[in-house]
Amino acid sequence: MAVEQLALTVLMGILLVAVAGLVSRMVDWRSYTPLGGASAIGGSGYGGGHAEKPAGIVRWFTTVDHKDIGILYGIYALVAFFWGGAAVLLMRAELAAPGFDIMEAAFYNSLLTSHGITMLFLFGTPIIAAFSNYFIPLLIGADDMAFPRINAIAFWLLPPGAILIWAGFFTAPLGLGIDPAQTSWTMYTPLSAEQANAGVDLMLLGLHLTGVSATMGAINFIATIFTERGDDVNWANLDIFSWTILTQSALILFAFPLLGSALIMLLLDRNFATTFFAVEGGSPILWQHLFWFFGHPEVYILVLPPMGLVSWILPKFSGRKLFGFKFVVYSTLAIGVLSFGVWAHHMFSTGMDPRIRASFMAVSLAIAIPSAVKTFNWITTMWNGRLRLTAPMLFCIGFISNFVIGGITGVFLAAIPVDLVLHDTYYVVGHFHYIVMGMIAFAGMGALYYWFPIVTGRMYQRTLAKWHFWLSMIGTNITFFAFLVLGYLGMPRRYATYQFDGAIAPLAQVTTLHQISTVGAFIIGIGQVVWAWNMVQSWYEGPEVEDADPWNLKDDGMFGREFQWFEAQKLAADGGEEEVATDGGGVRPDGGYRRAVRRVDDE
Amino acid sequence: MDETTSDDPPPRPWDEEEPREIEEDGPTRVSAWPLVVALGLTVSEVGVFMGVYPLAVGGLVLFVASVAGITHEAGYTRRPWRLAGALGVVLVAAGVWMVSTQVPLAVDPVVTAVERADGIVLRGVSVVGAGVVSVVGAAIVSAMGDGTNDTFPA
Question: Of A104, A200, A244, A601, which has the maximum CB count within 10 A?
Answer without folding.
Answer: A244
